[in-house]
Amino acid sequence: MSSIDKVSAFHAGGTASVGAKRELKSAKKQVEAREPEVIKDKVDIGGKESKAKEEESPAKKKWTVMAYINGKDGNLQRLAPSVLRELEAAGSDDNLNIVAQLSRQKSVIDRFSKDWSGTRRYEVKRNPDPPPLQKEMMNWFIPPYTKNIVSPVAEDLGDKVDMADPATLTDFLKWGIKKYPAEHYAVIIYGQGGGFAGSLADSQHKSVLDNKELAGSLKEASGEAGQKMDVVAFDGSLMSQLEVADQIKDSTNIMVASEGSVSLGSLPMDAIIKNLKFELGDSGKVTPEDLAKYFVFEQKYQPGPVAEMMAPTLSAIDLREIGGVKSAFNEFAGEISKAVNLKPELKEALREDIKNTQKFVPDGSPEPYTDYRDVGHFTKVILEDDRFNNYYFPDMKPKGEALLKAIDSSLIDEAHIGKAVENATGISAYMPTDFGYDMPPSFSQPENWDPTHGYGETTVAADTQWNELLGAIAKDTKFHNMLRKIGMNNNVINKIDKIGGAGKTVAKTALGFASRAGYYESYKAMRGKPPESYFKIPGGAAAKMGIAGGAWSSYKGGKQVVGAIRDDELKNRNIAIFDGVADSISGAAVTAACIGMSFAKAASIATPAGYASVAIPIAKAVYDMWHTYKQQTAAKVGAEINKLSPSDKLDMLENDKMKVQVEQGKTYISPIVKWLINSKSSGPIDAGMLQEG
């Protein structure tokens, strides 16, 4: 039984707090030792030959890249293998080691596709015939998802490994460092991210790796290597955060991460690692800063639609400078605190400025992610606000400018592409206006629920005045305050809050249900059948519901057409209009089919309308997928950056440092494509997992 199998055995379900679970695991691991390796058919009696072999170690290469690929959350089980295939486009050579640990959660589809699940380690070899982009995109959606992997399996760790357990990460990093020593080490962490809330969610074990645990794993790896990790790159969402950077700065020199979401497959790892490999072959030298720049370059110069869909923000941060950022952030927070203490009316002004600061997750998404905002933009908003910049507060401007300068000094480079992130400057922080009032994502109130999401445990909260300032300006809703005044506790308030939220959406939910009922009955009409029951609703009633549901779909489609025509910033307006027209006609066909099924005088229109209601959505989905596929492929394959050498790319980036990469306008992404790239496959960690541990 391997050490990884032992680690995984300690994870069980339950509702214990994160701290309690981790303490239990830690206590058990302390009394457990790694089993000795047994060498068959040979006994070591301490001879000269044995001692010589013990002293032998692999020769150091220039770089070792260790990819920790967690496919054990949502649809990442189908997307994670693509990261390994991208690494194989480069592969190891005399200058470069690439090793990976790939984990996949079991899927129902695996029964038919015969795909493997569990956790495996690989020595990544070059695939001389890697799948072309077109084929790789199909690999994301057509099983078996692990096909076309050519690298040999170094170890099969089984199906019980918890990828969010710090011991699992530590064991992999130590294995990679000991077996594949190098002058420089890069760690790629692929999986769901959540900023200060943690990363690497493992839904099989209902666990999340918090940043203290991450820092501990990186520290142990650094001890094994005798040096800090040169680069840690997060191929996941929301990790370019001051709270994350400060937590891991003692064991890592450079952090690469996104302020926003990383969707679909991953960052363009194939191009990034190819740059590393080819430059090592040409010049024999690639610095950690160079590798970090390759990450930013390949994202910065992605064609706009590709970048907006995949990862519109990416930052390379020198963690040796992050202490200066935290110090300047503390000074600026202290100055703002003086202002709100002197003039309490400025609390509302500060809440307004926070709300006007660049954010990365839309309203309506789970907490705490909607409150992740850009530090540099926040500073600029405050400095442009005359309420904070007047003779009462003469130190506000110099301290704000010092913070901006510190951020600039810490950034090796950064990319932000698209209208939605036009004010991003590279580093985010937690900026709620209702600090301490968040309700849990579930209907019930967990016993150990923390409305600040454990923010007080971060080093930024411990070492700065920021969380005190957030607490000073915190304001709950008037409705919640009214409920508290009449004696209701948080558990009851949460239930009322959830019921109220459900009440707001009940009409839309009912119309959506009616729309689905309408499409179902339309399908029956196409086949010449009478109405049938839908979720135990009698067929006749379901068909009548479908009349309203079809009208609702038609209305939404028409609304989209009007919106697209009026939106001057929309770059691919024609696609948005096409989708809206298709939805409108399809909805009208549903209504007509259901009318034909409900009223004898209109029976003749039921079948042809049913055909239209089924054919049009299929045609729309095919067209949207084809157009997106064609657009993505053409943009990537035809990009001029593919023709540049790695050194040319660095020169280009140096001459274009910190250029604002804002594509004019915005890109419409069809609902079917959004579903494919966002259906439990991208964005932040499920907030419900945070409370379970």
Total number of β-strand segments? Answer: 13
| Mean of pLDDT | 85
Q: Sheet with the most strands?
A: 9 strands, mixed
Could you state the oligomeric state of the chains shown?
Answer: single chain
User: What is the CATH first-level class name of the largest domain?
Assistant: Alpha Beta
Q: Which structural class fits the helix and strand makeup?
A: alpha/beta
N- to C-terminal distance:
26 Å
Examine the coordinates and then state which fold CATH places here, giving the name of the CATH topology of the largest domain: Rossmann fold
Give the overall shape: globular
Number of distinct helices? 26
Descriptive tags:
693 residues; alpha/beta; Rossmann fold; 3 domains; two-stranded antiparallel sheet; 26 helices; 13 strands; 50% helix; disordered N terminus
Structure report:
There is one protein chain. The protein has 693 residues and is α/β, with parallel strands linked by helices. The protein folds into 3 domains: 61-321, 3-Layer(aba) Sandwich (Rossmann fold), CATH 3.40.50; 324-484 and 666-691, no CATH class; 492-623, no CATH class. It is built from 26 helices and 13 strands. The protein has helices spanning 3-9, 18-30, 48-55, 76-88, 110-113, 133-139, 166-179, 211-225, 242-248, 269-283, 288-300, 304-310, 322-342, 346-355, 375-383, 396-410, 459-463, 466-473, 478-485, 490-526, 539-566, 573-598, 606-637, 646-655, 671-678, 687-692, and strands at 61-71, 96-104, 118-123, 153-158, 182-190, 199-202, 207-209, 229-235, 252-257, 313-318, 372-374, 411-416, 428-430. A 9-stranded mixed sheet has the order 4-3-2-1-5-8-9-10-12, sandwiched between helices. β1 (61-71), α4 and β2 (96-104) form a beta-alpha-beta unit. α4 packs parallel to α10 (269-283) and α20 (490-526) packs across α23. The longest helix has 37 residues, at 490-526. It is globular. The two termini are 26 Å apart. The relative contact order is 0.10. Residues 1-21 and 24-54 have low confidence and may be disordered.
